[in-house]
Galactosylgalactosylxylosylprotein 3-beta-glucuronosyltransferase (Drosophila virilis), 307 residues
Amino acid sequence: MSEVRIRPRQVLVLIIVFIFVLLMVHRNGKRTCQGPEYLQAMYTKSLTDTLPKIYAITPTYSRPAQKAELTRLSHLFMLVPNLHWIIVEDANSTTALVRNVLLRAGLTDRFTQLNIKTPPEFKLQGKDPNWIKPRGVEQRNLALNWLRSHADVDRHAIVFFMDDDNSYALELFVEMSKIKPGRVGIWPVGLVGGLMVERPLLNEENKVIGFNAAWRPERPFPIDMAAFAISMDLFFKYPQAAFSYEVQRGYQESEILRYLTTSDQLQPLANNCRDVLVWHTRTEKTKLNAEEMLQRQGKRSDEGIEV
């Protein structure tokens, strides 16, 4: 039986091929574990503690879809390392349902759970969630008061009003992290105000010169609550900045921003306001006709189950 001899040159070729395969596997594995480029950048920066903390303020109230919507948002917080969630319940006390959502997402040290009840005179009795005054005023103001007492004055941070019925892309929080001290960042919002996209209009120098809003364009800042985020130092500089019941519906954004900035000082983000990274998607009102019939018989489909 003849011997098979492997020459040194063949051994060298095999070693080179083996190393090449290992490098490709490592490269692909790295991409799979770390995710898209924008997310890789976020985690790399977080290791050096250079990202500003983003305080996301979410007013919430009890309703059939509450847990589902908060669960969806909690998955964002699991992926973005510099988010701190201030969730404010419209209730006389904080609830186990909301707390369980936060804990199940592993956000043990990354959330603050608050509560404050909206005065009954600001609601249409028996028709909740239809309101005669703007929603979330008490809750957002309580969160701002908490921030002024607990946020680090010397550390750059961002404040974002993050409603629980919107859809957010991860890239939005990367963009938000670019907001400079003393500035308000701004970007487009999809599916809002009767338009496919509501956005700032920029000049050749990328300064905001107007807005394309169709609904009440005469507003000082005709934008959605999801269209901007604010450098925390501005809330220390202007302690009177707050939301108000005294303004018309749709003017809450203008009410808070009038204390903090002017249109020409806004910082355009999201590819100079050409990328849509947040959508004003509202959950369809839950239909529970069969449940109501069941309850009239003294029964419940969710007896002993948290939904």
